[in-house]
Fold this sequence. Notes:
Blueprint: E1 3-12, E2 15-25, E3 30-34, H1 41-48, E4 56-59, E5 66-69, H2 81-92, H3 97-103, H4 119-133, E6 137-141, H5 149-164, E7 168-172, E8 182-185, H6 198-210
Parallel strand pairs: 3-7, 3-8, 5-6, 6-7
Antiparallel strand pairs: 1-2, 1-4
Amino acid sequence: MEMQVRDLAVARGGVTVLQGVTFRLAPGRALVLRGPNGIGKTTLLRTLAGLQPPVAGAVTVPSEAVAYGAHADGVKAVLTVAENLAFWAAAYGTHQVAAAMDAMNLQGLVHRRAAHLSAGQKRRLGLARLLVTGRPIWLLDEPTVSLDTASVALFAGVVARHLSAGGSALIASHIDLGLEAEVLDLTPFKAQPGHALAGKALAGAFDEALE
Ligand SMILES: Nc1ncnc2c1ncn2[C@@H]1O[C@H](COP(=O)(O)OP(=O)(O)OP(=O)(O)O)[C@@H](O)[C@H]1O
Protein backbone atom coordinates (compact mmCIF):
# COMPACT_ATOMS: atom_id res chain seq x y z
CA MET A 1 0.00 0.00 0.00
CA GLU A 2 1.47 3.36 -1.01
CA MET A 3 1.19 6.26 1.42
CA GLN A 4 0.67 9.60 -0.27
CA VAL A 5 0.89 12.76 1.76
CA ARG A 6 -0.17 16.01 0.13
CA ASP A 7 0.22 19.56 1.40
CA LEU A 8 0.00 18.44 4.99
CA ALA A 9 0.13 20.99 7.78
CA VAL A 10 0.53 19.75 11.34
CA ALA A 11 0.31 21.52 14.69
CA ARG A 12 1.45 21.07 18.27
CA GLY A 13 0.08 23.04 21.19
CA GLY A 14 -2.15 25.07 18.86
CA VAL A 15 0.73 26.24 16.67
CA THR A 16 1.34 24.95 13.16
CA VAL A 17 4.90 23.61 13.04
CA LEU A 18 5.05 22.18 9.50
CA GLN A 19 3.14 23.05 6.35
CA GLY A 20 3.10 21.90 2.75
CA VAL A 21 4.58 18.49 3.56
CA THR A 22 4.26 16.35 0.43
CA PHE A 23 5.78 12.93 -0.26
CA ARG A 24 5.07 9.35 -1.33
CA LEU A 25 6.12 6.22 0.47
CA ALA A 26 5.91 3.18 -1.80
CA PRO A 27 5.75 -0.46 -0.65
CA GLY A 28 9.23 -1.82 -0.04
CA ARG A 29 10.71 1.62 0.61
CA ALA A 30 12.05 3.44 3.65
CA LEU A 31 12.07 7.20 4.09
CA VAL A 32 14.14 8.85 6.81
CA LEU A 33 12.83 12.10 8.30
CA ARG A 34 15.54 14.62 9.06
CA GLY A 35 15.51 18.03 10.62
CA PRO A 36 16.72 19.76 13.78
CA ASN A 37 15.25 19.13 17.23
CA GLY A 38 11.79 20.61 17.54
CA ILE A 39 11.04 20.96 13.82
CA GLY A 40 8.05 18.63 14.06
CA LYS A 41 9.13 15.05 13.24
CA THR A 42 7.16 13.56 16.14
CA THR A 43 4.18 15.79 15.38
CA LEU A 44 4.17 14.64 11.75
CA LEU A 45 4.37 10.97 12.75
CA ARG A 46 1.59 11.38 15.34
CA THR A 47 -0.61 12.97 12.69
CA LEU A 48 0.08 10.21 10.14
CA ALA A 49 -0.68 7.65 12.85
CA GLY A 50 -4.12 9.21 13.30
CA LEU A 51 -3.44 10.35 16.87
CA GLN A 52 -4.20 13.96 16.00
CA PRO A 53 -5.94 15.62 13.05
CA PRO A 54 -3.97 17.51 10.42
CA VAL A 55 -4.46 21.27 10.16
CA ALA A 56 -4.66 20.92 6.38
CA GLY A 57 -3.83 18.51 3.59
CA ALA A 58 -4.47 14.85 2.91
CA VAL A 59 -3.11 11.41 3.75
CA THR A 60 -4.21 8.57 1.48
CA VAL A 61 -3.95 5.62 3.83
CA PRO A 62 -6.22 4.84 6.78
CA SER A 63 -4.65 4.80 10.22
CA GLU A 64 -5.52 1.06 10.39
CA ALA A 65 -2.73 0.46 7.86
CA VAL A 66 -0.03 1.98 10.05
CA ALA A 67 1.82 0.88 13.15
CA TYR A 68 3.31 3.68 15.22
CA GLY A 69 6.46 3.08 17.23
CA ALA A 70 6.48 6.06 19.57
CA HIS A 71 9.03 7.47 22.02
CA ALA A 72 7.08 5.86 24.85
CA ASP A 73 7.17 2.16 24.11
CA GLY A 74 3.55 1.44 25.06
CA VAL A 75 4.77 -1.46 27.16
CA LYS A 76 2.52 -2.58 30.03
CA ALA A 77 4.79 -2.65 33.10
CA VAL A 78 2.85 -5.25 35.11
CA LEU A 79 2.73 -7.78 32.26
CA THR A 80 5.57 -10.10 31.30
CA VAL A 81 7.25 -9.94 27.91
CA ALA A 82 5.11 -12.84 26.64
CA GLU A 83 1.93 -11.32 28.12
CA ASN A 84 2.64 -7.94 26.51
CA LEU A 85 3.06 -9.54 23.10
CA ALA A 86 0.00 -11.77 23.57
CA PHE A 87 -2.01 -8.69 24.60
CA TRP A 88 -1.02 -6.85 21.42
CA ALA A 89 -1.61 -9.91 19.24
CA ALA A 90 -5.15 -10.14 20.64
CA ALA A 91 -5.68 -6.41 20.13
CA TYR A 92 -4.53 -6.56 16.49
CA GLY A 93 -6.04 -9.99 15.78
CA THR A 94 -2.73 -11.58 14.78
CA HIS A 95 -0.70 -14.66 15.78
CA GLN A 96 2.87 -13.48 15.42
CA VAL A 97 4.09 -13.53 19.00
CA ALA A 98 6.78 -16.21 18.64
CA ALA A 99 8.18 -14.69 15.44
CA ALA A 100 8.30 -11.23 17.01
CA MET A 101 10.03 -12.61 20.11
CA ASP A 102 12.66 -14.36 17.96
CA ALA A 103 13.19 -11.34 15.74
CA MET A 104 13.93 -9.00 18.66
CA ASN A 105 15.91 -11.56 20.67
CA LEU A 106 13.49 -11.69 23.59
CA GLN A 107 13.41 -15.47 24.15
CA GLY A 108 15.53 -15.25 27.30
CA LEU A 109 13.16 -12.68 28.81
CA VAL A 110 9.79 -14.28 28.12
CA HIS A 111 8.59 -14.43 31.73
CA ARG A 112 10.14 -11.21 32.99
CA ARG A 113 7.79 -8.39 33.89
CA ALA A 114 8.27 -5.38 31.66
CA ALA A 115 8.79 -3.25 34.79
CA HIS A 116 11.98 -5.22 35.42
CA LEU A 117 13.45 -4.89 31.94
CA SER A 118 16.41 -2.64 31.23
CA ALA A 119 15.80 0.39 29.01
CA GLY A 120 17.22 -1.37 25.95
CA GLN A 121 15.30 -4.59 26.64
CA LYS A 122 12.09 -2.58 27.05
CA ARG A 123 12.78 -0.86 23.78
CA ARG A 124 13.30 -4.24 22.07
CA LEU A 125 9.89 -5.33 23.41
CA GLY A 126 8.29 -2.12 22.16
CA LEU A 127 9.78 -2.70 18.71
CA ALA A 128 8.63 -6.34 18.69
CA ARG A 129 5.12 -4.92 18.93
CA LEU A 130 5.50 -3.59 15.37
CA LEU A 131 5.84 -7.14 14.08
CA VAL A 132 2.83 -8.30 16.08
CA THR A 133 0.59 -5.65 14.52
CA GLY A 134 0.95 -7.18 11.06
CA ARG A 135 0.49 -3.69 9.62
CA PRO A 136 2.28 -2.68 6.41
CA ILE A 137 3.37 0.90 7.13
CA TRP A 138 5.66 1.49 10.10
CA LEU A 139 6.04 4.98 11.56
CA LEU A 140 9.12 4.97 13.75
CA ASP A 141 10.11 7.75 16.12
CA GLU A 142 13.76 7.42 17.12
CA PRO A 143 13.48 3.62 17.29
CA THR A 144 17.09 3.01 18.28
CA VAL A 145 17.16 5.08 21.48
CA SER A 146 18.61 2.94 24.33
CA LEU A 147 19.67 0.15 21.94
CA ASP A 148 23.25 -1.14 21.94
CA THR A 149 25.14 -1.69 18.69
CA ALA A 150 24.05 -5.33 18.36
CA SER A 151 20.39 -4.45 18.94
CA VAL A 152 20.54 -1.60 16.41
CA ALA A 153 21.83 -4.12 13.85
CA LEU A 154 19.12 -6.59 14.88
CA PHE A 155 16.41 -3.98 14.41
CA ALA A 156 17.87 -2.79 11.10
CA GLY A 157 17.56 -6.40 9.92
CA VAL A 158 13.93 -6.52 11.07
CA VAL A 159 13.13 -3.36 9.12
CA ALA A 160 15.00 -4.64 6.04
CA ARG A 161 12.94 -7.86 6.09
CA HIS A 162 9.74 -5.82 6.53
CA LEU A 163 10.66 -3.83 3.41
CA SER A 164 11.53 -7.00 1.46
CA ALA A 165 8.10 -8.37 2.32
CA GLY A 166 6.44 -5.29 0.77
CA GLY A 167 6.10 -3.20 3.91
CA SER A 168 7.35 0.36 4.22
CA ALA A 169 8.81 2.54 6.95
CA LEU A 170 8.93 6.23 7.74
CA ILE A 171 11.69 6.74 10.27
CA ALA A 172 12.65 9.77 12.34
CA SER A 173 16.21 9.04 13.33
CA HIS A 174 19.39 10.94 13.96
CA ILE A 175 21.45 7.79 13.40
CA ASP A 176 22.02 5.83 10.20
CA LEU A 177 20.36 2.42 10.33
CA GLY A 178 22.35 1.31 7.29
CA LEU A 179 19.17 0.82 5.27
CA GLU A 180 18.79 1.78 1.65
CA ALA A 181 16.53 4.76 2.28
CA GLU A 182 15.62 8.12 0.85
CA VAL A 183 15.85 11.16 3.10
CA LEU A 184 13.14 13.77 3.60
CA ASP A 185 14.54 16.94 5.13
CA LEU A 186 11.69 18.77 6.87
CA THR A 187 13.53 22.10 7.09
CA PRO A 188 11.85 23.57 3.96
CA PHE A 189 8.43 22.76 5.44
CA LYS A 190 8.93 24.68 8.68
CA ALA A 191 5.87 26.86 9.21
CA GLN A 192 6.34 30.58 9.47
CA PRO A 193 6.13 32.00 13.02
CA GLY A 194 2.69 33.23 13.91
CA HIS A 195 0.95 30.66 11.70
CA ALA A 196 -1.83 29.87 14.19
CA LEU A 197 -4.49 27.21 13.89
CA ALA A 198 -7.55 28.33 11.96
CA GLY A 199 -9.68 27.67 15.05
CA LYS A 200 -7.51 29.89 17.18
CA ALA A 201 -7.56 32.64 14.57
CA LEU A 202 -11.35 32.42 14.41
CA ALA A 203 -11.57 32.54 18.20
CA GLY A 204 -9.40 35.66 18.13
CA ALA A 205 -11.64 37.29 15.54
CA PHE A 206 -14.67 36.45 17.68
CA ASP A 207 -13.03 38.04 20.73
CA GLU A 208 -12.28 41.18 18.72
CA ALA A 209 -15.87 41.35 17.51
CA LEU A 210 -17.08 41.35 21.12
CA GLU A 211 -14.87 44.26 22.11
N1 LIG B 1 2.46 19.41 24.11
C1 LIG B 1 3.04 20.43 23.48
N2 LIG B 1 2.55 21.67 23.57
C2 LIG B 1 3.12 22.71 22.92
N3 LIG B 1 4.19 22.57 22.11
C3 LIG B 1 4.71 21.36 21.98
C4 LIG B 1 4.18 20.21 22.64
N4 LIG B 1 4.92 19.15 22.30
C5 LIG B 1 5.88 19.60 21.46
N5 LIG B 1 5.75 20.92 21.25
C6 LIG B 1 6.58 21.77 20.39
O1 LIG B 1 6.25 21.42 19.05
C7 LIG B 1 7.39 21.49 18.22
C8 LIG B 1 7.57 20.19 17.46
O2 LIG B 1 7.90 19.17 18.37
P1 LIG B 1 8.27 17.71 17.88
O3 LIG B 1 8.36 16.85 19.11
O4 LIG B 1 7.31 17.28 16.83
O5 LIG B 1 9.71 17.92 17.21
P2 LIG B 1 10.80 16.86 16.74
O6 LIG B 1 11.27 17.30 15.39
O7 LIG B 1 10.26 15.49 16.86
O8 LIG B 1 11.95 17.09 17.81
P3 LIG B 1 13.15 16.15 18.36
O9 LIG B 1 14.13 15.94 17.24
O10 LIG B 1 13.72 16.96 19.48
O11 LIG B 1 12.50 14.86 18.85
C9 LIG B 1 8.58 21.82 19.15
O12 LIG B 1 8.87 23.19 19.03
C10 LIG B 1 8.06 21.50 20.54
O13 LIG B 1 8.64 22.34 21.52
